[in-house]
Amino acid sequence: AGWFRRLLHKPKPSSVESKLNTSCSTSSSSAAKSSSSSSSTSLARSVPLSPLSVLDINASDSARWNKSYDICICHSEVDLELVEELVSYLEGQPESFRCFLQLRDAAPGSAVVTELCDAVQNSHCWVMLITPGFLQDPWCKYQMHQALAEAPLANGRTIPVLKDVDRKDYPKELRNLYYIYMALKENSFRQIRDTVMRYLQELCRSSTSRME
Predict the structure, then answer these.
(1) Looking at the domain assignment, is residue 165 inside a domain?
(2) What pTM, to 2 d.p., does this model score?
(3) Pairing between strand 158-162 and 123-130?
(4) How far is 99 from 27, CA to CA, in rounded Å?
(5) Which Gene3D superfamilies match (predicted)?
């Protein structure tokens, strides 16, 4: 009889828990519908950054300083305004990312091919802003091929970012790499920053391990 009375008086879930469960269920269902209906979903996802701090990456003996730039931005001239916003965002982060922007940083009088190759070789990561202009620009494709030849299997070094381009038009040379689809600019900028940060963290960690 005692256990029967306890069963009858078993407390019901609180209204807060009930609402929370309902909310989570609704949110999950909405997200699934959104994912299935979107024709241009980003294939990149945010991954939590590892504990290695900004101080470690900025240390004077960090492997980060083995190259002149952290990021080389490959883009079409018609997308310059957007790229300048991205560079301003990245350079304004606590890590003070060093970005190569061709129209700003290329040496006057130097050959275009030389500058593009040097930028690729002297940068840790390469952001490919793939837009209709990029797909029509032979210099963008040249720089993309140089980056792939430099490090074809280096995870996180080549970062494709799609904007106003259908997935079917995604360059076949990059099909083995996940991309970021730029829908909300702020979110995409943050994804780019996080991807570069993860690569630099792994770079510094690997360098420290070899030294030990």
Answers:
(1) yes
(2) 0.72
(3) parallel
(4) 38
(5) Toll/interleukin-1 receptor homology (TIR) domain
